[in-house]
């Protein structure tokens, strides 16, 4: 895969159930107020360690607020060697509408 793909929350949930990793690039406060269950908060500080320890061939789903900035982040991650990258259409807002039971609160770790 030379570029990322855009997917719906339903497709993301399917990938997630097959071992896909979800990363959330929103600000820490937004992440703490609600995020996809089990997702990892990714920012400029955590990015280098994430890249260094991640399985570059595992599906990676990037989540933002509404599905716009996740596209740039997904393209960047493809450039860093990730082979199977997706941007979540509609972002966390759409995920929360589709899967309210699959969201949680808590500070980024």
UniProtKB/TrEMBL annotation:
Name of the protein this chain belongs to: Thiosulfate sulfurtransferase GlpE
A GO cellular component annotation in the UniProt record: cytoplasm
Reactions listed under catalytic activity: thiosulfate + hydrogen cyanide = thiocyanate + sulfite + 2 H(+); thiosulfate + [thioredoxin]-dithiol = [thioredoxin]-disulfide + hydrogen sulfide + sulfite + 2 H(+)
NCBIfam families: PRK00162.1
Organism lineage: Bacteria, Pseudomonadati, Pseudomonadota, Gammaproteobacteria, Pseudomonadales
Enzyme nomenclature, EC number: 2.8.1.1
Chief subcellular location: cytoplasm
Family: Belongs to the GlpE family.
């Amino acid at each position: 895969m030379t570029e990322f793909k855009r997917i719906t929350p339903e497709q993301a949930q399917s990938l997630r159930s097959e071992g896909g990793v979800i990363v959330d690039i929103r600000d820490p406060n937004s992440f703490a107020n609600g995020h996809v269950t089990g997702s990892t908060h990714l920012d400029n500080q955590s990015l280098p360690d994430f890249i260094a320890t991640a399985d570059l061939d595992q599906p990676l789903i990037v989540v933002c607020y509404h599905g716009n900035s996740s596209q740039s982040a997904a393209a960047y991650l493809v450039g860093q060697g990730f082979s199977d990258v997706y941007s979540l259409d509609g972002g966390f807002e759409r995920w929360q509408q589709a899967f309210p039971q699959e969201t949680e609160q808590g500070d980024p770790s």
